[in-house]
Amino acid sequence: MAAVGDSKGVIGKTDSEDQGRFDSGDETANSSIEHPFSDPEIADRWRKVYENAQYENRHRFDPSFTWTAQEEKKLVRKIDFRICLWAWVMFLSLDFHRRNINRAISDNMLPEVGMNTNDFNYGQTSNELPIRLAFFWTALSTSNILGSLLAAGILQMRGVLGWGGWRWLFLLEAIGTFIIGLFSWVLMPPGPCQTKSWFRGKNGWFNEREEYIMVNRLLRDDPSKGDMNNREAVNLSKLWKAVKDWEQWPLYIIGLMVYIPPAPFNTYLSFILRQIGFSVFEANLLAIPSQFLYAVNLLIITWLSERVKERGMLSSLSNIWIFPWVLALVVLPGDISPWVRYALITGLLSYPYCHAILVGWNAKNSNSVRTRAISAALYNMFVQTGNIAASNIFREDDQPLYRRGNRVILGITSANIVLFYIVKAFYVWRNKVRDARWNALTKEQQQDYILNTTDEGQQRLDFRFAH
């Protein structure tokens, strides 16, 4: 849920209401249905907010503007092609460059640089967001698949100019990343009304009507998306204010813990395969099946989450999936076939990645541009901290089977499953507390609160947490 109130006071929609608006299949349905700015008083209040914030798209804000569902779907496809596709390419480039080290260690990189596995560790509209994020993160599996294919060939260059194959791998993939970075610098616009440039064309990507649709659909989804401009920095007081939004912290804790179990296997897959008898070439190609299944499961679980409007329980499936595979690695004897061990790790790494759901969940519960920007950064910091911790689970004295590390991962996986349900219960409880306080107000008091409160973001009494 997003927010509550009567037909005039509502500043948001429940998940089911939002889904029904454009998923009904009615191509003649338009934007004239009830929305946050239907009440002129509320529209005037937000118009002043956008003006004071110097919101860059405020000249396209129009509470009376209407458009058809067919127009919107056509525009969303255009945005997906213009923005999302290139963002996916950027993600692909990023993951090529940051994941190639996982393949380089299959080519004797660690001993050549004087390291062992103890030294090798490193960190690293609201309803439409998760499925598009899922699309972005298929770049991770795509980069791993393409990267494994490239590595299988490039690592054969060992000895050319006296270099190790892993050095050529780093160089050639870095060149590709650099080229994509240059294109991104001139290709990506700062906002929907700022697409005109020498590189993108003098007429830009969108006409005036399309700009009106883009701006108003975003603001009607969440009016707070215009309470800052895209040139405004977050100062220390606003930063501290966002950090103090304590009800966001359960999601940060999930971000810290949830990706720890698969991370060591993902990092060391090719290394483990080399240790149990596979060649460099085989170790890189054998990483491909798990990455393909991973991408499929990522899209399925994210689509399902948006379809049924469930986040906590469906996200827990990521660690529920991992549990039996890790359990098998813990209890099976050490002399099992290398192919059986490979199959178990492949099954584990095919888990339904819930990152898109959690990032969308984090954004939805932020309920303001300020909090959303900072909470996204904080969430990512916790995720990277978890990655740093995960990279220290497999130790030199525990290889090649890492039986002690597997037991540690089994314990963390079990705790994570419970954690998801605790966090869901927490947000259900917080919503009930707010319901009781909101319902204790009269209709007049509720309307006065909506128009005059100084509460912001998730601290607003009429806001409800998604879970």
UniProtKB/TrEMBL annotation:
Q: Which controlled-vocabulary keywords does the entry list?
A: Glycoprotein, Membrane, Transmembrane, Transmembrane helix, Transport
Q: Membrane spanning segments where? A: 134-156, 168-188, 249-273, 285-305, 311-332, 339-361, 408-429
Basic and acidic residues composition bias: which ranges? Answer: 14-24
Where are the coiled-coil regions?
none
A GO cellular component term found in this entry reads: membrane
Q: Which GO terms describe its molecular function?
A: transmembrane transporter activity
Pfam families this protein is in? MFS_1
Bilayer topology: Multi-pass membrane protein
Q: State where the protein is found.
A: Membrane
Annotated stretches, region: Disordered: 1-38
In Swiss-Prot or TrEMBL terms, this protein is called Putative transporter
Protein source organism: Fusarium oxysporum (Fusarium vascular wilt)
